[in-house]
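Researcher: Sequence of Phosphoenolpyruvate-protein phosphotransferase follows. Predict its structure.
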Amino acid sequence: MSFQVFGIAVSRGVAIGRAVLVASSRVDVAHYFVAPDEIQAEIARLLRARDAVVQELETLKNELPEDAPHELAALLDVHLMLLHDEAFTGGASQWIVDRHYNAEWALSAQLEVLARAFDEMEDDYLRERKADLEQVVERVLGALAQEQGDAPTPVTPRDFAGEDPLLLVAADIAPADMIQFKRSVFRGFITDIGGKTSHTAIVARSMDIPAVVGTREASRLIMQDDWVIIDGDAGTVIVNPSPIVLEEYRFRQRQSELERARLARLRHTPAVTLDGEHIELHANIEMPADAEAAVAAGATGVGLFRSEFLFMNRDGELPSEDEQFEAYKAAVEAMKGMPVTIRTVDVGADKPLDRLTVNELRHEHVLNPAMGLRAIRWSLAEPSMFRQQLRAIYRASAYGKVRLLIPMVAHLSEVRQILETIKKVQQQLTDAGHAFTRVELGVMIEIPAAAVMLPLLLRHVDFVSIGTNDLIQYTLAIDRADEAVAHLYDPWHPAVLQLISQSIAQARAAGKGVSVCGEMAGDPDFTELLLAMGLRSFSMHPSQIPAVKQRVLRADAQRLAGALPKLLDSEDPQATAERELAAVRAAPAAAH
Ligand code: PEP
Ligand code: MG
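Model: Prediction complete. Tokens:
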């Protein structure tokens, strides 16, 4: 039966493929394909791991002391029974044969299928056996990890014929796991949780694959292997589409591929408005390797290197100074003399260091993480970690143009502490004989307090970067990762527009650099608005650069600026913008 699920559109385009349901706790299981000639060996690997667990449990059972409660032996029997059940290894083996999944993936796919069957059972006792099944899977995954050496060589889907594209469906995905999917097999994402600028959505956008988040129950309604269409423009998911609908979406998919190819031709065209204003289109990156995509997309620098992703997936161990230095240097070298803006670590809120999802974090750990110890607050609370990161960033400055960006600044006292730490770090580097050059210092404008007192902050810094994702969140008191209030997360809110517009004007008046690096900068619907406000530097995911560039090339910055007062005075800025900015577009271009 065909049905639709509605969510929030976060990454554009159409993806068509089969659903892969992944439990949030299983997202970090390795997902890769096995070559056809390795399928039998992979099944054997799975069975060996199963047998090892059987052996382990049997030994445990035989060695149970006389006085052990008899429930314990019964429990071990249940686990052994599950391990021998054909639906368990037989089902998992089938995923390996049919879909070429590696053993770990096959096992978690089968767990999803069986867990659902358990959920639907009437009998309480049987329903509760789901927990046993999960424990058994956990054990087999553990046994598979023990014999990593025998794991097959991963192959990409293109290496064998007949595969269907795969779309990931999960209740939620932690940003730390999301980053591992960057080079993954999935061509689209659907999650129950999240908002337009939650970090999971941001990473999906950086991967340039369609995604819909905040669907609330997609992971419950969609079945493993269902055919699914993700409409990343409308924020809808169509499950088991009819052939006519499928054909319609295949057509749209082809159209958007053609449009992309057309826009890609703008790569070498400088971003200059009709009235001759040069616009910087910089890239937001999460890993040094992303710099390659930035250059390929025609970025003229990196406006935001979210360094926190270097700190994730490390089992609590932080990256050393040398490791960070190598990462920053790699990004700087890849950008070949173009500026690289490295933001100091911004963990906390919906970006925990470990693999927690937003929900886990909210419910189990911190009362209100978005307002807690995150970003610069965390760095200042961990001075040696902060100095280490600053040293690594300064050392990278010997290899190109590095700029330092501090997230979530709200107090002048924080800026003073940062300046003092920088002085200390420069001295340490000089003493140790490390080379470095001048590094411009910038702060992010993400908290309304920073925007309101910007003239004071500007006395101490070289540039500012407006983080609209958080600025909207904190101005409107809307958790950016909470789908329940996503409809109130409004970049067009008059208060938001006032803060952005004032910040740009004040920074320009002070002769300081100003850019926007939040998601608004990469959304072509806001390009003219930001140009009208006087913005000349935008930073976004590389994949968004061509579409924004196209808007820039067709814009007349001076005439757009003329429409701004009406817009800022409007009670419905979005409607006014549509009317006023369209009028600028329609009017014959003036000679300049
Ligand atoms: C922002 O808040 O707009 C921003 C760019 O930072 P992040 O999305 O990483 O919080
Ligand atoms: Mg932010």
